[in-house]
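notes to self, project folder thing:

trying the whole complex as one job this time. last attempt i did each chain seperately and stitching them together was a nightmare. two parts in total, labels are on each line so i dont mix them up again. if this works i'll redo the older ones the same way
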Amino acid sequence: MPKSIEELKIIAKQIRRQIVEMIGAAKSGHPGGSLSAVEIVVELFFNRMRIDPKNPKWVDRDRFILSKGHAAPVLYAAMADAGYADTPVDQLNTLRKLGSVYQGHPDMRFIPSLEASTGSLGEGLSMALGMGFAARLDGRASRTYVMTGDGEVQEGQIWEAAMAGAFHKLDNVVAIVDYNRIQLDGFVSDIMEIAPLAEKWRAFGWHAIEIDGHDFAAIEKAFDEAEATKGKPTCIVAHTIKGKGVSFMENNPKFHGTAPTADEVKLALQELQ
Amino acid sequence: MAPKPKFEIKLGAATREAFGRVLVELGRENKDIVVCDADLSKSTMTVYFSKEFPERFVSLGIAEANMTGLGAGLALAGKIPFVSSFSAFAMNKGFEQLRVCAAYPFVNLKVVGTHSGISIGEDGPSQMSIEEISLACSLPGFVVIAPADEAATKALVRAAAAHVGPVFIRTGRPKAPIVYGSDQKFEIGKAIELKEGRDVTIIANGLLVAQALLAADVLEGEGIAARVVDMHTAKPLDFDTIARAAAETRGIVVAEEHLVDGGLGVRVAQVVAETEPCPMEFVGIRNTYAESGQPDELMDKYGLVARDVAAAVRRVVARQS
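result (full assembly):
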């Protein structure tokens, strides 16, 4: 059942609250890049992908790889709210604790419904291409979505994969770059400039679309356009705000990899009412 | 009783050639076999597969990191991917992806390195892989195989395809001496005793198996009865065969075309230390890189021929008390 944008916004707000609570309870983690990715992940899990959380290994399902694995909390909250049996909602706040299924980075050994184990940047796109290639060989309609960080595209493997995706015309693969402009050490443009990004993907043979990554209407339109694009894969360059939704985290490099204090969690949750 | 015939070198196909041939057979039997190549198919011999199954042959250009990650993605989507390159590139340039995309999530990826060791000859050290047994064995969950000849390669590549989990197979460039008949059975993790002996045991893999058999014949003439074991699987090791050899022969030589550091010998020594400690000697490359030359010249210069195996056995015998 397609969801309205109003419904998706309600889910997004709930997931933002869960992200803040989880990372606050863990006292470590990556809030900024989890919050910037919320709308895209919500659209994928609640409106876009052909998935059946009750039957997670359904062979014709669409797949999602969070290549920027440090944003695990957004993925965990989305999968928990979507109803996967191996991502219980009531355990979200065990994030990063010994024995938790909610490992610091997504780990298939603990959550078999995950499509890949990630955390070392630059690798998800290659795996997504393999999944896309397999689906095409089998004649399955399955589409594969992979989200990378913006700093992540500094990895050389991303561009090896970009060449390969276009060369093999894998139009069933969609890459989304969460372009929030901040990486661990500071602003991307100060660490290693990646602009002009959409032009780079186009030069590598991809269909590239630039959108506001917090605008559900724009996200839906971009995914529709990707699905209609044949003969080449699509990259969605999603302009986002690091820490989106929590005023003191927005555009603040500190919250790339720093957990909010208990007081900051309270403040954030007030803002996310 | 008539004396047993001595081992003679009769060259068979290169192990990389055997890999290329058996891959085609596997492709015919199983539509889920997919092969990934990084611009070396004419050398790794995956070219045979590419001709018969072009739709299941994924050309990825000179980009081994992406090839390895893409292979993992194929496996995660239910395929049985074989990714192949020279060992030096498959292992070193793909190591991070083997670790995070294959070993850690225990993905059903098969990696076949060709042109292993120094017997590639003229191309020299940048192409000579002498570290990969050490690297592959360091990955939890991986199976690591170094077959001795054509028959062993064909059987063990088949076993790798049937095994669920990540596998690395080490093959070589030159024609390999025939060790096995076509009726020999192979099992991952189960060593093969090629020659009986009670005085000392020679454990070898790859091209050194034939050299070990030659050495054993020489030693027999000196009154030393050497047991010869083909330890084709470096991981998981055949613990029982090693422990029994240590207990029964009280002396072990390990011979391999690889750095001694981190190689098969070190792994065998760990088992010996944990079970029946006894004198050991190691035949391998010692803390150096080789150079260009003809394969036979290099094996001789770097101490990887029967002469060196026999000398190591004599050192072990001298230490036995």
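what i see at first glance: The domain at 5-271 of chain A is CATH 3.40.50.970 (Rossmann fold).
need to look closer tmrw
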